[in-house]
Amino acid sequence: MFQLPGVLPGSLQPFERLLWPSLAIVLFLLGGLVTRRVLDRTVVRWAAQSRFKFDDIILQAVRGPLVLWFLLGGIFMAQEVAGLDPGISRVFGILIPVLLSLSVVAVAAKIATGLVQTYGDRSPAFRPLQSISQRILKMLIWFVGLMFVLNAGGVSITPLLASFGIAGLAVALALQETLGNFFSGFWITAERPIRIGDYIKLDSGVEGYVTDIGWRTTRIRSLPNNLIIVPNSKLAQSIITNYHLPEPEMAALVQVSVAYSTDLARAEQVVVEVAREVQKQVQGAVPTHEPFIRYHTLGDSGIGFSVILRVQQFVDQYLVTHEFIKRLHARFARESIEIPFPQRVVHLRDKSA
How far apart are the C-alpha atoms of 156 and 248, rounded to whole Å? Predict the structure, then answer.
């Protein structure tokens, strides 16, 4: 037990028994208020000017319970000075660590949720999961903290853990599909194979713009302006083609064929001239791209080749292809280059000969 210097146990008068504990509480309380004031005037302002957010989160979380910690220190000193009965001292010996532990758990929960908030501000795709992630993280921290507090207070937590384990298993089985969608949504948000605004296509044939990634479903707006709602678990198991990654700019291939009698070098020159004109004049095309063609097929009706254009994003290929086909058809007509129809040569044998 702590004793004042020069004072024997039991020699304090009733007034002194009240004075010294009260003085200890007041001094510690004033120390906490002064410390928080200094913290606000110096450290918090300095942290606000830094480009890192982690220090701001910690200081804001600690600022609230700082006075409480000093007050608990004062109460501890006061009960030591007062020379209370052993029974009352044991109560304070349990109450003070419990309150201190609970305040530390509250600080840890605030720091964790603050970090999630910061990540959500930097990652727009994570924002739909931000609120529920903060709640789950806070509940988990409080649960673990309370278990430690009960264990430190002499309460056996083994039956509680067993009960929570059985209850958690029952809830997990009942909400298996919902939890699967939630964790799939969390994975999609963290891994970011798709982002809000991306144009994607699933192996099931569903395609469109991603408009929202929720904690249970992802919403896709198709080109006809219909909303397609896909469960996150299904999306996580699908093969996804993302037309906005690694960048929105992409190639647009147009298939063309010419007759076998065509001068292929001349045809290539004409096609490239038309394609270059389209690249520079049509909205959505990449004006700096140099188009080219590649012959690839000796078909039944003609020689096939691909024209490689380039567009700024997926939907631009429709207008660019539209304009290219119109202009190429008109140019082929002027150059007398034949676009062959499907045809087959049939030889008839005269059996009477």
Answer: 59
CB atoms within 10 A of CB 216: 18
**Contacts of 66 by beta carbon, 8 Å cutoff, 6+ apart:** 32, 35, 36, 39
Residue 152 has a CB neighbour count (10 Å cut-off) of: 12
Q: How far is CA 154 from CA 13, 98, 141, 149, 164, in A?
A: 36, 11, 20, 9, 19
Q: Output the CA torsion sign for 133, 136, 139, 144.
A: negative
Alpha-carbon span 314 to 199, nearest angstrom: 7
Question: What is the pLDDT averaged over residues 35-43?
Answer: 70
Reading the block at residue 303, the tokens are 């020689």
Domain 194-242 class in CATH: mainly beta
Q: Say which residues have a Cβ less than 8 Å from residue 92's Cβ, sequence separation at least 6.
A: 75, 76, 79, 84
Tens-digit pLDDT profile for residues 163-207: 666 666 665 555 556 666 667 777 777 777 888 889 999 998 999
Q: Report the pLDDT value the prediction gives residue 2, as an integer from 0 to 100.
A: 47
CB 269 within 8 A of CB 331: no
CATH class of 250-335: alpha beta
Q: Where are the domains of the chain?
A: 14-173, 194-242, 250-335
To which H or E segment does residue 236 belong?
Answer: helix 232-236
Amino acid identity, residue 68?
Answer: L
Listed residue (247, 238, 152, 150) closest to 198, CA to CA: 247
Which residues, at least 6 apart from 53, have a Cβ–Cβ distance to it below 8 Å?
118
Q: 291 near 270, Cβ under 8 Å?
A: no
- Both tokens of residue 321? 């292809």
The mean of the pLDDT values for the chain is 79
Task: Write phi, then psi, for 85 (nearest 5 degrees).
Answer: -60, 150
The helix/strand count (H/E) of the chain reads as 11, 8
- Tell me how far apart the 2 most distant CA atoms of the chain are, in Å: 145
pTM reported for the whole predicted model: 0.57
Helix (H) or strand (E) run with residue 168 in it: helix 158-174
Q: Are 232 and 199 in contact (CB under 8 A)?
A: no
